[in-house]
Amino acid sequence: MQKFYYLILVAVLLGRSGGSVLAQQPAAGDVAPASGSVDFGVRMSSNTGDPARNQRYRDLRDGPTVDRLRYTHDDKKWVFSAGADHLGYRDQRYFGELRQAGKFKLSFEWNQIPLFNSAGTRTLFTSPAPGEFRIDDSIQKGLEAGTLRLADVAPQALSFDLRSRRDIASVNVVVTPARNLDLSLKVKTTHRGGKQQWGVGFGFSNEFEVPAPLDNRSTDVGSALEWANTRAMVRVGYDGSWFTNQVESIIVDNPLRFTDTTSAVSQGRMALWPSSHSNTVNTAGSIKLPAHSQITAYLSVGTWAQNAALIPFTVNTAIAPIPLDRPTAEADARVTAMNYTASSHPLREVSLTARFKRYNFDNRTPHFAITNYVRTDQSVVTSLLGGNEPLGYVRDHFDADASYTPKAVPFTAFRVGFGREEIERTHRYVETTRENTVRASVDVSGNAYVSLRTGVERSMLKGTGLDEEVLDEIGEQASLRQFDISDRNRNRLSTILQLTPIATVGINLTVATGNDHRPDAAFGLQHLDNRTYALGADYVPSDGMSFGANYGYETYKSRQMSRQAASGVQFTDPTRNWFTNGAERVHTANISADLLTLVPKTELRMSYDLSRSRARYDYVLTADTTLVTPQPLPVLINDLRHGTFDARYRLRRDFAIGLVYWHDSYEVQDFALGLSALGRIDINTGSLLLGNAYLPYTDNTFMLRLSYLW
Which candidate, 380, 179, 346, 391, places its Cα nearest to that of 265? Predict the structure, then answer.
C-alpha cells in the first residue's frame, strides 16, 4: 500500500515540475495563490529485541515513505488547506480545511492509530468464528485424563501478532448566517478492530488468555446554535453517541476439561462490551455585569441506555439452567450536569471567582432478581444480595478563589482558595464522602527577570454512613476501605521558578512534594508519598540557534497492609498481617540543540532523552508473625532512551535533501511481566497464557528524505 502512495506522489511531483508549476508563477508584486511542501524518501531500520514495544503507536516498517504533505490555496476570499502524514502506513493521517472568514468553516480529518502489543504471542486456541475459541479435542481429553500436561502441548502453540487499530474520521462545520450567530455540527466515528489480550478463569487457580476480537464502532454527533456579542452569549445544543459492538460475548474451551460435570466445565462464556447509546441536550450562557463581573452557566440533561441480550448464568450442560429474570439488560440512566461560574474584579487589586458543579448519575435500571447463580461455571450458590444493585451518585463541587495584588509589591499576586466536594452514593457501603480543600499560593508574573508560582494545598476526605454489615455479608474484613471512598488526608506543596538573567538564557526550577495518609484504612493502601525535583536551562544565542538541557528526579513511596487468613480464627488474627512497602526512583534527562544557521543552507536538529526507573516491593511481617517469611522480590528495572538526529541541506530554494536518524532502546527486568515470568505460556500446571511479556529492544532507524516546496 505504501508503495502505491509513493508512486502517486512521484507522478504528482513530475507533473508539477513541468508546465503546471510554471503556469502558476505569479507576476511581479502578486502573491502566489497556492503553496505547499512535501517530505518523501525511504526508511530503513534495524531492530533487535521486541519490535512491538518499540513501535507501539507507530508504524516503522521499511520502505518508501511520504512522511509529510502540506498544501494551501488562498484566493483572498476562500482558503483551502490540506495535509497528510505517513501516507500508506498504519499510522497515516489526512486532514483539511475550507474556510471563508466570518462566514463558513469546514474541516475534516481521518486518523489511524495503531496499537502493537506483541510480536511474539502464542496460543493453542483456534477461532472458527468471531468470539469463539476452541482447543483440539484430543488435547482436552489428554489433559483431563492426565496423560498429557500443558508443558507437553505448549510447543504446538502458533505465534501471531497481537495488534489493533483505531480508524477515526471526523467532520466539523461552522456556519455564520448572520452577525453574532453561529451554527455548528460535529460528527466523529471511530472504528476499532484487531485483537486484545483477554483473561478467562475456570476456578480460582486457573487462568487462560485468548486474543479477544475487537470489532466495534463509536459515532458521536454534536450540534449547537450560539449567539454572542461583546456582553452576552447564549448557546443551545444536542449531543448523541452510539456504540455498536459486533462481538458482545466470547466462548472459550477449558483446556483442562473435555466433559461437563457439576464441579467442572468444558467451556466458559463471558460478556464483552454491550452496544449502547446516549442522547443529551444542553444550554449555556454568559453575561457581563458592572464592576468587571461576569456570570456563566451550563446545563445538560441526557439519557444513557443499553438493552443487550443477557447471556445465561452458565453454559455448563451438567447444571440445570437457571431462568433469567428478564431476557435483556434494560439498563437506563438519567444524567444531569450543571456548571455555574461567577467572577468579579471589583477593585484593581482584587479578583474573586466562585464555581459550582453538579453531576447526577441517576441509575434507573430496574431490579434484576437473583436467588441462585452459577459461580465460575462450576457450582450453584445462593446470592447474598438477591439481585443487582444499580449504582448511582450525585457529585457536588463548590470552589472559590480570591486574589490580591498589592500596589507595594508589583507583579505579585497572593491567592487563597477553598473547595468542597460532596458525593452521595447509592448501593455503596459508604453512603456519603465529603472532601474539603484549602489552598494558598503566591504568583510573580510580568517581571522580565523572574517568574514564580508557589502554592500549598491540604485536603481531607471523610466518609459517613458506613455499613459494616455489608462487609460481613460478603466475607470481607470490617476495616476494609475501598480506594475511592476511604478517609484520606492529603498535602501538596509545589514551586515553579523561572529566571531570565539575560535575554538569551532561561533557567527553570520545579520542586513538588505530596503525601496521602488514610487513617482508617487498616487494609489496603495506607500511605503514599512523592517528591519531584526538576532543573532546566535554555540558551538561544541567535535566531536559528538554540540549546536546551533538563533533568528531573522523582521518588514514590507507598505502604499497604494485608492479612493472609482463612475464615474462622485466622480471620481476626493480627499475627497474620503483612505489609508491602513500595519505593521507586525515576531519573529523566533531556538535551537538545537546533543549529539552523550554523552552516549555510544547512539545518541541524539533535536531541537525546533518557528515563531510568528503579522500583522495589518489599514484604514486611509483624514482630510476632505466624506467617512463613516470604521470598524477596527482585528490583524492577525500566530504562528508556531515545535519540534523534535530523540534517537537511537546501540544494535550491524549493528543494532540499536530508538524513534522519532515530535511536531507541529499552531495558527491562520485571518479575511479574518480564521474560523470567512469562517466558513460557504454560506458567504452571493449570494456566495457559499468551506470553505477552515485557521485552527489551534496540532500534536504529534511518530515513533519506527529500523536501520539495512550491
Answer: 380
